[in-house]
């Protein structure tokens, strides 16, 4: 049991310490149709073209006779997540974005909340619709809108995902996490795991349905996937369940080697 705990924690630490610029398969655990094709995980949020290409790969895998029923079911499930993003956009009611406009608001970033109409109110400039907009398109959309009021504006934006992180973490509850944060960073933003966390059964749920779990979830951590790359959106739940076995002391010893990483992650969440 202790050996298994060491392996689980090691997987988590690999994901936590992985550099942002790594080569990873684009399919969240499923291989692309061309095994030589890979993507640059240094792009922390996915463009519309990348999502369309990803959807095509999932659809090809779903229809292929070369894969098992379980494999094709997973491809179909991930295709549904990507299709929803392309059709509906990324922004949900209650999402937050930060907008900094040079020369406005004393150059301080403004935190704006997405309304039930999927709009945000920019002070002095009215309501900007984010319906159908992807996170990767936010900067361009805000710049285009602000240009109606300010000539050649300098604009910076960031998307925050309101994610429920519950179970065996130090600070369970809702946390506003940057969309470009790694999945492991999201866990650390909730204070990190407790000594009783069972990573082999950690999962992400949406409306009570498991969308990331098991080996695919573990692979996403190890590969350094961002929340955006995993198609995670506000309202999703990241659940770290209780481990009924031993190994707590081993986990605590391993986690003591990363206090600096914890500080850096908290800075990522708080800083613009």
Question: What's the helix-strand series?
Answer: HEEHHEEEEHEEHEEHEHH
CATH fold naming of the largest domain: Outer membrane lipoprotein wza fold like
Low-confidence runs (pLDDT<50, min 5 residues)?
Answer: 1-42, 246-272
- Percentage of residues in DSSP E strands: 15-25%
Task: Report helical residue fraction.
Answer: 25-40%
Q: How many beta-strand elements?
A: 11
CATH architecture of the largest domain: Roll
The main pleated sheet reads as:
7 strands, mixed
Can you offer a commentary on this structure?
- It is a single chain.
- By secondary structure, the protein is an alpha+beta fold.
- It folds into three domains: 2-20 and 160-270, Outer membrane lipoprotein wza fold like (Roll), CATH 3.10.560.10; 23-87, no CATH class; 96-159, wza like domain (wza like fold), CATH 3.30.1950.10.
- Helix content is 36%, strand content 20%.
- The protein has eight helices and eleven strands.
- The protein has helices at residues 2-17, 48-63, 69-88, 138-146, 183-189, 214-222, 248-255, 259-270; strands at residues 23-24, 39-40, 96-101, 110-113, 119-122, 126-129, 155-167, 173-178, 203-206, 209-213, 237-240.
- Strands 3, 4, 7, 8, 9, 10 and 11 form a seven-stranded mixed beta sheet that branches. Strands 1-2 form a two-stranded antiparallel sheet. A two-stranded antiparallel ribbon has the order 5-6.
- Helix 1 packs across helix 6 (214-222) and helix 5 (183-189) crosses helix 8 (259-270).
- The longest helix is centred in the first third of the chain and has 20 residues, at 69-88.
- The chain is globular, with a radius of gyration of 19 Å.
- The model is unreliable at 1-42 and 246-272 (pLDDT under 50).
């Amino acid at each position: 049991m202790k050996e298994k705990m060491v392996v689980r924690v090691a997987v988590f630490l690999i994901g936590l310490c992985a550099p942002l610029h790594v080569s990873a398969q684009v399919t969240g655990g499923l291989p692309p149709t061309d095994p030589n094709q890979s993507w640059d995980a240094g792009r922390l949020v996915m463009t519309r073209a990348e999502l369309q290409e990803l959807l095509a790969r999932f659809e090809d895998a779903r229809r292929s006779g070369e894969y098992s029923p379980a494999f094709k079911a997973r491809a179909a499930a991930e295709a549904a997540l990507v299709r929803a993003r392309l059709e509906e956009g990324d922004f949900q009611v209650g999402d937050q974005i930060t907008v900094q406009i040079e020369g406005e608001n004393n150059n301080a970033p403004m935190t704006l909340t997405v309304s039930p109409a999927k709009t945000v109110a920019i002070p002095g400039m009215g309501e900007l619709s984010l319906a159908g907009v992807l996170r990767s398109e936010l900067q361009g959309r805000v710049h285009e809108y602000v240009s109606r009021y300010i000539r050649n504006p300098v604009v910076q934006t960031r998307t925050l995902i309101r994610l429920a992180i519950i179970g065996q973490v130090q600070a369970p509850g809702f946390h506003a996490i940057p969309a470009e944060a790694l999945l492991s960073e999201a866990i650390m933003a909730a204070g990190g795991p407790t000594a009783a966390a069972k990573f082999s059964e950690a999962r992400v749920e949406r409306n009570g349905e498991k969308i990331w779990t098991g080996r695919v979830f573990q692979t996403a951590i190890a590969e350094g996937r961002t929340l955006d790359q995993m198609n995670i959106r506000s309202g999703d739940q990241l659940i770290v369940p209780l481990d009924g076995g031993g190994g707590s002391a081993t986990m605590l010893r391993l986690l003591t080697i990363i206090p600096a990483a914890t500080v850096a992650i908290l800075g990522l969440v708080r800083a613009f």
